[in-house]
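Provenance

Sequences were taken from public entries as deposited. Structures were produced by running a predictor on each sequence independently, with no templates supplied. The record for Rhodanese-like domain-containing protein from Neptuniibacter pectenicola is shown for reference.
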Amino acid sequence: MKQYLTPLFLSVVMTLPLSIAQASDISGISPKATYELLQQKPDEVLFIDVRDPIEIMFIGFTDEVDLNIPYLMVDRSQWDAKKNRFRLYQNPDFATQVEQALLQRGLDKQATVITMCRSGSERGLPSAEFLRKHGFPNATYMINGFQGSSAKEGEKTGFRIQNGWQNSGLPWGSKPNPDKIYRIDR
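Predicted structure for Rhodanese-like domain-containing protein:
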């Protein structure tokens, strides 16, 4: 039996994207399943958008999130010539801010925390792994994130028109909620 399962397991793992194949024990949750969970158990889940607030302003937002707590932030004073973009740095208060958000809702670190970024891989999965390493055992991420995957062929190649929250018929808008967006002015 083992001789049949090993090749099957390897063939499945080899077809997964590298970031998912290397993931620890976090399998993620789909946008639709996230939405359904939020409808069924709104008082038991913390749903956070981990994107930089500037990205949200230009791409869109869902008011279904409890808060925007950035995992990686853009340092507009430092240019990363190697990656041809501004330098990204990890929010040093991320875990503390997530814990505070849980406490404000009457929840503790054992609660389900779902993180959402643009695509699910660059910040969604890493932020959930980070939270797990820092004492949030039920942290997970939303697969394909807010905007989803890019089309690989056709006239819309490169456009993020596949999967994700935005492309799943779930509620979203172009303007962020000022009470939920990450702000340093208060």
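The CA atoms of residues 12 and 174 lie 37 Å apart.
The longest helix spans residues 2-15.
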